[in-house]
Backbone:
DNA sequence: GTTGTTCTGCGTGAATCACTGAAAATCGTC
DNA sequence: GACGATTTTCAGTGATTCACGCAGAACAAC
């Protein structure tokens, strides 16, 4: 089948170097591109197409999902492998729905990474065991009605809520958010209320801080 | 001087592997430990002490600063090298104050990383150029009395206004602030209005961010 | 089909914002 | 002490947002 042409997307150059190093002694995988964002990558794909795009995400961002979707629609032949440093099933499922063909968590190692790449190249999907386990565990936990951990709370934020949170923490008024998302101001208020409740925050100052801490907005 | 004994702390195993791989062909650096958190590392240091601990942080968290402080006080001979994937001067400065002897950003590469480790081992501090530039820029701005630098803007605030701003950015409601300062709610509102005008801020989300950026409150 | 979640929206009263004005207290200065 | 500048204090008004609750519509899961 020949060499596997791979593109690497990760906002942190040193991490790209690290992954490149890990894949260095796997000669059948050839890293053609290495960019900060999917946006940077797309134009390069016209001249030098790849088989697989591996993207690393550090924080659950609806825009990332949109970018994956965009990439998949624009280059339908490429297989997208997502590595997420968070463990939110919601977002992972969204990535898959957006067109990602495989998923890895940060718990992974070189062998699993290579396995994932090879699996995708062979036309099959690949989901790390940790993910399937996570989903299983979550169902069990839901059944057991476990107490909310910090992570669980984060997981609970829906896509829409994250969008609202991001816009709000980016200094937009409710009216502006409503216009941008084509919903009513009351709905924006509802979302904000739900966010505060889910995250157990008291004021919107806390909401801003949460958004900053989780890299949803810049300081 | 012999081998450099290094410990690696990163919440994401795959990233630890990546860094380990990058350092593989630097025989004078020996990675003894590789843990998820500083907490996990500390007990290991009693049996197998290291020269340098390199920790990677992905998001600005006050607890991380506390952990670095704790590590530095508990093992005073180890040198802590922090790599942060964010670029907030405040937090980086806090890490340095907490006892970190060096700092890298995610823009770094293998060579700079090795250089940082060697520098620390030789007893010197190491700060990536991007960071020193940032710090320098800040000092220059202060010295040159540039048109409203952050600091100048801060200076413009009166004592009372600063008190109000701090309390507000610390998640207190206007009523709480009023009670604490023994003034009326309307006065609190006035102060906040004046602050926004003086600092040329549009929303109170901006006010919160200003307070965080200027270390008036913790994130 | 049932169940559950998300997204959407509304009502109400309280709190806060944005803007303006203004009196009393404080401070530096002559 | 007198004067001006600044700070601190407080209020009126209308718009916006908060806090809490409630509920239908859309959608996915089982």
Residues:
């Amino acid at each position: 089948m020949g060499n596997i042409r791979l593109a690497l997307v990760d906002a942190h150059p040193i991490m790209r170097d690290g992954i490149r190093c890990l894949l260095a002694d796997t000669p059948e995988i050839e890293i053609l591109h290495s960019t900060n964002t999917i946006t940077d990558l797309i134009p390069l794909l016209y001249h030098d197409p790849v088989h697989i795009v591996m993207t690393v995400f550090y924080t659950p961002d609806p825009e990332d999902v949109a970018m994956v979707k965009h990439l998949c629609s624009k280059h339908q032949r490429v297989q997208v492998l997502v590595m997420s440093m968070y463990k939110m099933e919601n977002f992972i499922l969204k990535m898959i729905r957006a067109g990602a063909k495989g998923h890895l968590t940060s718990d992974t190692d070189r062998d699993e990474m290579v396995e994932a790449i090879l699996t995708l190249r062979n036309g099959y999907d690949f989901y790390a065991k940790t993910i399937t386990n996570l989903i299983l565990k979550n169902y069990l936990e839901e059944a057991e009605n476990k107490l909310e951990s910090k992570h669980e709370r984060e997981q609970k934020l829906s896509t829409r809520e994250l969008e609202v949170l991001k816009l709000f923490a980016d200094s937009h008024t409710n009216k502006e958010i409503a216009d941008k998302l084509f919903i009513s101001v009351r709905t924006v208020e509802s979302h904000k209320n739900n966010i505060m409740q889910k995250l157990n925050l008291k004021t919107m100052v806390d909401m801003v801080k949460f958004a900053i801490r989780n890299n949803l907005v810049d300081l």
